[in-house]
Amino acid sequence: MKNNLKNMIIKYKSLVGLLILCIVISFITPRFLSVSNIKNILTQVSVNAVIAVGMSFVILTGGIDLSVGSILAISGAVAASIVKSTGNLFLAIIVALAIGSIVGLINGILVSKGRIQAFIVTLSTMIIFRGVTYVYTNGTPISGLGQSFSSIGNMMVLGIPIPVVFMVIVFGIAFYVLSQTRYGRYIYALGGNEDSARLSGINTDKIKTLVYVICGAAAALSGIIVTSRIGSASPNAGVGFELDAIAAVVLGGTTLVGGEGSVVGTIIGALIIGVLNNGLNLMNVSPFYQSIIKGIVILLAVMSEKKKK
Amino acid sequence: MKKRSKLLSLALSTVLVMSSFVGCSSQKSAESSKKIGMVVSTLNNPFFVSMKVGAEKKAKELGYSLVVLDSQNDAAKERSNVEDLVQQGIVALIINPTDSDAVVNSIKFANDNNIKVITLDRKSNGGEVACHIESDNVKGGEMAAKFILEKLNGKGRLVELQGIPGASATRDRGKGFHNIVDKKDGVKVVASQAADFDRQKGLNVTENVIQATPQFDAIFAHNDEMALGAIKAVKAAHKTVVIVGFDGNDDAKAAVKSGDLAATIAQKPSLMGSVAVENAVKIAKGEIVQKEIPVELQLIKK
User: The complex's ipTM?
Assistant: First the structure.
């Protein structure tokens, strides 16, 4: 038991970082630890966490997906326009998720079959799908979406905000897939050494393609959450979100070369970023200093990960 | 391979032919001594479209022809637009820069060809500019603050949602706001936090502020997007707060109508375009114009 705990601490150093951060902030602003603020943080984190979990799949194979912000924007915009014209919430969600998956599939095929570096592929699709969003929305936000759609982002189930429920479900599925299924083991094998994975008979192209589909679908789900939370789909939604998601993955101890890491870490990483944003707001820290503090925290966290090796 | 290069050459020649048509049509218009050039950062934004419409109306009124080119937010395109206009023999150039630094060389090019330049909405960090025209953001911040104090009977706790740190709109709107509220007794700014002109960040930051200081009476957001996000947060917390935005975009105007937003400070892009042409004509006639011309703003309330 004691050994177990020690292993946990070594494995999830980022968790220790998160706890320290929470303790420091709660000493400065006692409101930080109130139930309503914790709900508040979890809701805000869910947007980034859902993307970051999808991003973890990609990064575990040694890839990267820069297009998540644009996927979020286009799928949010499409969901909004469907809800606005038909009022059919279910259809809107299904189509948005399908669009995210299709864009992910395009990324995946270009990376696996096209043999183009993931950074280049997703940089291009990031730009292309931002453009598609501008064309689709004609550069103006889509608003007036009605009550049922906004309930996704703003209602609670058994006292838990729905976005948080989404986050927990996504995390649960991802955790199960990565740790309990053959597909999950193949992802780690592929990230560890692609050549030996292929030689041992794993269909590496298929696995690689699928991780981008997962990442695209996750970004689309996040797009639905964002759009329903603010009750409007902005053509500029999600700009820069890829960096927050990558930061969450890296803070959680997953290495960018692939093959090593976990979604547990990613959730902790997303929480660190969310707690930091919330804490700095609560303490009314000047925005000029906030950037410096955030950057330093990310650096410190990654440095502590390095040390353990 | 061969097929591909054929296709490429076909596509390229089509583009060339089409662009030469565009060139022809603009060269036909009016005699060059009464031609003013206008280069707009992007026409993919209603704000700049109104600016263009206002400018065109004024030009027609004054008997000048106006050639408007779209830079599509691309500094390289902007440069070639300026070159094209100079070739057409314009008497003055109105430019709404894509970027304050990137525009400098374009303006120098116009200077070298003895064409006077007016900058619109964004400044240039170099070159010789005869006149700069922009909305009076400081005054807009003051208008918002005065409106809020009037609504609260001169007393209350205020929250400020700032734009992107360091951006000129953030600085000026914030400065105007603080000019009014900082000296008042019984008025306290309980939080000043950045939400980067973004609706979702406006929502998140307001949620966080509500956690930290649940008691406040009004929010001044440096743009409408953040104000619209703040409305969501305030509604979810079942609070009644006076919220004032900035820009006067369509969503904000609808929110003012429905009562969710107390007011928004609207820029007048059409007036800006009109003032620019007015001064371009003055310059063309050799009259002296003011170096900086602030354009008034408008408070939109229910």
Answer: 0.74
